[in-house]
Amino acid sequence: MKRKPKQARAEATVSVILQAAAQVLLQRDYHSTSTNRIAERAGVSVGSIYQYFDNKNEIYDAVLNHYLAGLVARLETVEFGPELSFAEIVERLAFAIYHEWPDAPELLRKLRQAPDARVHDKLVDTKRLIVAFLRRTIDERSQAAMMRDLDLALPILMDAIEGIFLNARSDMTPELFANEISVLAERYLSVEGRGAESSSKPASSAS
Fold first, then answer.
1. How many other β-carbons are positioned within 10 Å of the β-carbon of residue 125?
2. What is the pLDDT averaged over residues 45-62?
3. Do 100 and 63 reside in the same domain of the chain?
4. What are phi and psi of 37, to 5 degrees?
């Protein structure tokens, strides 16, 4: 960003620009967006945009930063008591994120077309923060003993969740998404679940 807003009015203008940029991107592919279209959607002049951003790549980089920062902050606001299992906590978090940002999967897919947004690197950094949050949650509930090697399993779980999130169907509801993520987390991380699956498979006959 060229210049960070310092006054409330300037902050409001930047917020409107970012919201408009996201809306324009949802209606087009990345290469069909422009500062003119964003300005028109935001109801501001193109000159107002250039007070804060050099080009549309900077605008969409700011859109990505805004979304990812909001996602991490949202994790800290979801309420869950000590009686909840880890799978139930994951379900609540997944529901809160998908419910608040239902357009995020499509938006992130399109932002990957941006040459300067560094989407992959920023998603990796965000996943590390979420993994650390989940690890603290598990440790606080003394549930680690019932789970697999968490240093290995949690990053793999986050990669799977990212794939489901980014490729979510248009008819995927927050409830369905949260339920599927909860089932995935419980079955993958649980030592007992893995043992039950292994024991249920027929042993191959010796030749």
1. 12
2. 93
3. yes
4. -65, -40
- Is residue 138 within 8 A of residue 150, CB to CB? The reply is yes
Write out the residue range of the structural domain in which residue 86 sits.
56-189
Segment 121-132, tens digit of pLDDT: 888 898 899 899
| DSSP one-letter code for 156 | H
CATH of the domain at 19: 1.10.10.60
| Residues contacting residue 115 through CB under 8 Å, at least 6 positions apart | 57
**Ramachandran angles phi, psi of 113, nearest 5°:** -80, -15
Nearest-CA neighbor of 20 among 40, 35, 42, 36?
42
Do 93 and 12 lie in one domain? The reply is no
- Look at residue 51 in the predicted model and tell me its pLDDT: 93
Residues with Cβ within 8 Å of 79's Cβ and at least 6 positions away in sequence, in order, are none
Separation of alpha carbons 195 and 110, rounded Å: 40
Mean pLDDT value across residues 42-64: 93
